[in-house]
Write a structure and sequence with these properties.
Blueprint (H helix, E strand, L loop, with lengths): L2 E4 L5 H12 L3 E6 L2 H11 L6 E5 L5 H14 L4 E4 L17 H28 L4 E5 L12 H20 L4 E6 L6 H6 L14 H10 L4 E4 H5 L3
Parallel strand pairs: 1-2, 1-4, 2-3, 4-5, 5-6, 6-7
Helix pairs in contact: 3-4, 4-5
């Protein structure tokens, strides 16, 4: 069975994608900082198909990243790496003039530096896979200017560029930056508390990720809503 590492897998999009891949028979290595939420996700995913290893920890910790890859190696390798763990930089979001620089550093460390670190750790196994794939979960905040989203958006713009260059440097892999679009997640609630406008559930965009895995288009940046609509 193919093996995937998914970071930020305890809730939201990460958990929804884990459940969908498990139903397809994938073996999974799941990561999140919250041990209790990750345990609940592990229990929900286990039994749907493949084997599951859930390792709580912080992706900014090099030792934790090595543990994730070692767990995947124990399951047979790494066919897919999904970088979904994210940090906002401030909760709730604030304008750039008020953004704590420590918060910006945290967003860059989680969203960009840790992503590259995990890719570097997994590269030998990804290259051994016949379908080695990296998915970087992006955001329209990385390509559009929204008030208060500057720090988070800057980190996602950097992530997009990292994914684009990796796709050029590693033509044997598929590297996709995927903008999932608006979703009802805890991350959004923390970013903009009190915004009760209806948003799609994370499960609604999972078909976009599955379509990418099925069709394997060229490395690049993709929008999940367009993929779900068949565009």
């Amino acid at each position: 069975m193919p093996v995937a590492i998914i970071t930020g897998a305890s809730k939201g999009l990460g958990r929804a994608l884990a459940e969908a891949l498990a139903a397809r028979g994938w073996d999974l290595v799941l990561d999140a900082r919250g041990a209790a939420a990750l345990k609940a996700a592990e229990e929900a995913v286990t039994g749907r198909g493949g084997r599951v290893a859930a390792l709580p920890g912080d992706v900014t910790d090099a030792g934790h990243r090595a543990e994730l890859v070692a767990a995947a190696r124990g399951l047979g390798g790494v066919d897919l790496l999904v970088s979904n763990a994210s940090a906002l930089g401030a909760e709730p979001l604030v304008r750039l003039g008020e953004l704590p620089l420590a918060g910006l550093r945290r967003a860059l460390e989680v969203n960009v530096v840790a992503t590259l670190g995990l890719v570097q750790e997994a590269l030998p196994l990804l290259r051994e896979s016949a379908a080695g794939t990296v998915i970087a979960v992006s955001s329209d905040a990385g390509s559009e200017a929204y008030e208060t989203w500057g720090g988070y958006g800057a980190s996602k713009a950097a992530l997009d560029q990292l994914a684009a260059v990796l796709g050029v440097e590693k033509p044997g892999l598929r590297v996709w930056a995927v903008d999932p679009g608006d979703m009802a997640t805890d991350l959004y609630s923390a970013a903009v508390p009190g915004d009760d406008d209806p948003r799609p559930a994370p499960e609604s965009v999972v078909p976009a990720f599955l379509r990418l895995l099925d069709e394997r288009p060229a490395s690049g940046r993709y929008g999940a809503p367009a993929l779900v609509e068949g565009r």
